[in-house]
Design brief:
homodimer, 2 domains, 4-stranded antiparallel sheet, 457 residues, Aldehyde Dehydrogenase, Chain A, domain 2, 16 helices, alpha/beta, 39% helix, globular
Amino acid sequence: MTTFNAHDIAKAAKTAFQEAQLISSSERVVALYEIRKSLEAHKAEIIRANEEDLREADVEVKAGKMSATLLKRLDLNRGDKWDSMLQGILDVAALPDPTGSVSYASALDDDLELYRVACPIGVLLVIFEARPEVVVNIASLAIKSGNAAILKGGKESNRTTILLAKAISAGLLKTAIPESYIQAIQTRAEVSSLLELDQYIDLVIPRGSNSLVKNIQNNTRIPVMGHADGLCSVFVDEHADVTKAVRVVLDSKIDYPAACNASETLILHESVVYTIWPTVAEALLQANVKLLCDSVSLDALKQLSPKPPNFENLVSPSTPSSYDTEHLDLILSVIVLPSIQSAIQFINSHSSHHTDSIVTESDVAASAFCRGVDSAGTYVNASTRFADGFRYGFGTEVGISTGRIHARGPVGLDGLVTYKYMMQSKAPSGHIVGEFGIGKKQYKHKPLTVATVPFLE
Amino acid sequence: MTTFNAHDIAKAAKTAFQEAQLISSSERVVALYEIRKSLEAHKAEIIRANEEDLREADVEVKAGKMSATLLKRLDLNRGDKWDSMLQGILDVAALPDPTGSVSYASALDDDLELYRVACPIGVLLVIFEARPEVVVNIASLAIKSGNAAILKGGKESNRTTILLAKAISAGLLKTAIPESYIQAIQTRAEVSSLLELDQYIDLVIPRGSNSLVKNIQNNTRIPVMGHADGLCSVFVDEHADVTKAVRVVLDSKIDYPAACNASETLILHESVVYTIWPTVAEALLQANVKLLCDSVSLDALKQLSPKPPNFENLVSPSTPSSYDTEHLDLILSVIVLPSIQSAIQFINSHSSHHTDSIVTESDVAASAFCRGVDSAGTYVNASTRFADGFRYGFGTEVGISTGRIHARGPVGLDGLVTYKYMMQSKAPSGHIVGEFGIGKKQYKHKPLTVATVPFLE
């Protein structure tokens, strides 16, 4: 029964995607406006469903089975959340069209032109946490980029999700885009069935814990764009400036400790242990950051007189597992290493390949660090917290990918497109391969400068 | 035991990759020249090992357990195969460096610059057929693009493969690149163990049958870039020119029927069944192509008087499975459909999303076909046989991807790279996120025009 449903849903999504390929991209913007209107028209019933989700969640919280934080996230009527959800649709509508642009064009011969054109991927399966506004956000990104999407939110928000998805489909009904372009599913069993349907689904985007991502990767042939955890670090080089060190280490840790781009580990070059480290440590302790120190960095602090503020209650020895832990809190693991080479090796072994920063005045060290550290972001004298689609200038963010394939780092709308090659012969009798070769015609490969494919309507 | 070996091999590959990140890309070109020299120096023993592989294969052929074609492919001393294998190394060495170029650059603030830089992916696991020269070809591509590689060829060429890999490592020993940068493995059990090691291996590239690709996709978390089968088609539109139709259909089928970009299916708009189809059919039959026809296309041929040449022995009715079969031979499935819309739907359901071509004089039809057909290549009045990395102007080809993620269609060196973001603050006290926000600094996102990252050595 479930399998049957999943198959129907996936097939409907693929059909909707294929039909929509002939619709102009301006209609996708119209659709976003219609969806916004439809959500506004159905606001009362969506909020009522949300209140039901909240009531049920409240019982769970009182029984100690759910955190109060999760409850807050469920609330769609809290503060300006509803309005900013609707504004988000307009923001996405206003972004440049990620499809249709030509990234490579070449005349293989007179009157034979090849174009590599950005186009949607197909059907996305997006699995995310219990934050109902994400349904609207992901639907907007999918529509703007020309992809159909099947959405699965956290089960705690199921009632809200169903009505949001219905309002989205009602909006699509007023456009040329098929209403099954965006569909929502409710159960994990449906997800499992969908993961088998690689003939219909082209990309799975799980947003959530590392274990969720790994579990999905283990159970599907479909490519997975993982948005996993972040274990970022800052390395204070022997050539570091103390002011920069304090500012970058502090901001990376305390600006928003629960974010994946917050720093979890501080690596000190051994030559700064008695020079820069005490100042950095004092600033961290004043900001109430708990320090898990290796013996060398701990000894250096112990020798200080007077001891830094909060030393007794905030400084303790690290354990080997400290350096593989994403604290997501005001906690920082500290280690001293003898060289930049060992720092690079340490980061490559322990970090999650998200974002790592070096504090240094040396161009040689900056270059070695940025080349040697195998992470999506490698920074010089800048906080790891800059790793974010909005800060990078993408206008929005699908997530941050710690994988290397297709998209890496903060992923904007560009991460939701692929390309196809279009070729047109304008020769009087078309073009065939048999005319080329030794003693015959040769390929010309003359670069063409075009922004879009001339023969497309 | 096998698991232990696999782990050591994979870890050595990752370490070699990471160490090589600090080596300049010009050294990779030096390495290719050294490998060529080393292969030349070890030619006698490699050829002896190849002769042993051939002797053993010959026994299998005589026992009817192996095809003579496979035997021929094993022979490294046949014709100019050895010399063109060595020339291939120089060709790859001469290609532009696919790494180091900047595809996006922006000043997020005064003195805060962000760069998206092409860089290698990491460790590749490449599994391919029993053609020993592929070892050298793949090794060249991996080294040129800065990736470490673990290679597994067909077991029939094991002796040759081992010595080729040894000669490659001997060449690397004369350079700064670690010798474990390129490693060869021999058994399927080793492949199975390696597929579990996603902490070391970043991309699997299986070259071979659809079942090989699917089997690997089912058994690993590591991303797979599949080079699967090709089920290409040509659609003769109602607005087709007869000369173009004959030339494009014929070339797509007969230029090299065993290639993945050869056409397997001919789709006819119903309005050309009694106009263009008889001429196309006659040309196909004259070229000895077997036609598997649906009832409408078959009836049209039956009504011809006189019958086309070879009609009796080459024309037969199709079955439903004809349209899902990659013939790889002088066989063509033929179907008549009532519209371009139904042709697009048919292709999207039956083709392998490789390359499909329309023959038409109509720009409207060309545009609809190229947008609506969800394949890596969509052509107008050109043979499907153009789908090839060399013909596209990439200089070489890793393979042809029918997937949509990361690389699609013919994959050149560009398909073996990813990108990372580098960021540098040149501000007197570095850059922190806490300085930006409402009532504080705003992001400037000023586009920068640079080809490479200025601060890299």
